[in-house]
Structure formats: structure tokens, C-alpha cells
Write a structure and sequence with these properties.
The chain is of the alpha+beta class. About 55% of the residues lie in helices and about 30% in strands. The termini are far apart.
Length: about 170
């Protein structure tokens, strides 16, 4: 009777040891894979949250498209000479000035920020002082960034008609 118990106990104990030796490494591998899976799941959840936030921000920007376009027009990607000439011609006519000449030159990059390009514009205008003052107010109210560098004018040849020369700086990137 002692032998069958001994054989049964040895068989059970042997099975446990052999099972542990062969299954424990697989169990460790299973735990590593499970941890990787949890880490990947967390990463994907964080990434999904990030994209939801981007979509929400994009929707908010779309509702304010007009404001975003205005901000983009302050510092355009490139200098559009034709639209600038058209703008100066339209504004000068609106305020009763005659645009006699316009000269646009590129002056290089902005100090410390090489992406931003500086462009010089010289306008020669003919008109009254009040018309010129209104013209400058229009430039100031424009969304585009104009920097008035210098204003010169000559004495009127006729009643109140002055020759104005305005040097402006505009920027693009």
C-alpha cells in the first residue's frame, strides 16, 4: 500500500515540477506580451484623444474662418505686387489722390527672423493734405502690416495740391 501512495505522490509532484518548468517561461512571456498590449492600448487611446482635440480645434477655427483669413493676410506667404498696386490705386482714388508712381523693391530678411522678408514700397501721390491724411488712416486700418518709414511732400504749385512721397515697408514670409 505504501508504494501506490508513493507512486501517486511522486507522479503528482513530478507533474507539478515538470509543468512548472515548462509553463513558467511561457507564463513570463505571456505577462510581457500582456504588458506590451496594455502599453499599446494606452498609447492608442492617448493618440485618439490627441486627434479628437485637433479635430475640435479645427472645427473651432472653421467657425472663425474670416478671422483666420484676416490674420493670414497680415503676413502673406509671398509678396503679391499686383494686389498691392491695385490696393494702393483703389485707396488713393477713394480718398481723392492721384497715384503717380509706385516702386516696389525687396530689401532682404527681417533681423533675427530670416524667414520674414522685408519689401520697400515708394508711392508718389498728388492731392490735398486732408485726402492724404485719410489715405494714411486707411493704411493704418488695413489688416495688412504696413510700416510707414518716411513721408515727404512739396509746397503746392496749385492752390492746395501737394506732391507726396511715402516710403512703406511690408513683410512676407
Amino acid at each position: 500500500m505504501k508504494y501506490p501512495r508513493f507512486i501517486i505522490l511522486t507522479a503528482i509532484f513530478g507533474t507539478i515540477i515538470i509543468g512548472s518548468v515548462f509553463t513558467f517561461p511561457k507564463y513570463k512571456e505571456y505577462l510581457k506580451v500582456a504588458q506590451k498590449l496594455v502599453n499599446q492600448k494606452t498609447f492608442l487611446e492617448n493618440q485618439a484623444q490627441y486627434y479628437r482635440e485637433i479635430e475640435e480645434t479645427f472645427r473651432k477655427l472653421e467657425t472663425k474662418r474670416e478671422i483666420v483669413d484676416k490674420i493670414a493676410s497680415i503676413l502673406p506667404k509671398k509678396l503679391d505686387s499686383a494686389s498691392l498696386i491695385n490696393y494702393f490705386n483703389t485707396v488713393s482714388q477713394k480718398h481723392g489722390l492721384l497715384l503717380q508712381d509706385i516702386l516696389i523693391t525687396s530689401g532682404g530678411s527681417f533681423p533675427k527672423i530670416e524667414r520674414i522678408q522685408r519689401h520697400q514700397i515708394t508711392l508718389k501721390l498728388l492731392g490735398t493734405y486732408s485726402s492724404f491724411k485719410d489715405f494714411l488712416v486707411s493704411l493704418e486700418k488695413n489688416a495688412r502690416l504696413f510700416e510707414v518709414d518716411q513721408v515727404t511732400f512739396s509746397a503746392p504749385e496749385e492752390k492746395d495740391i501737394y506732391d507726396f512721397e511715402v516710403q512703406l515697408t511690408v513683410y512676407s514670409y
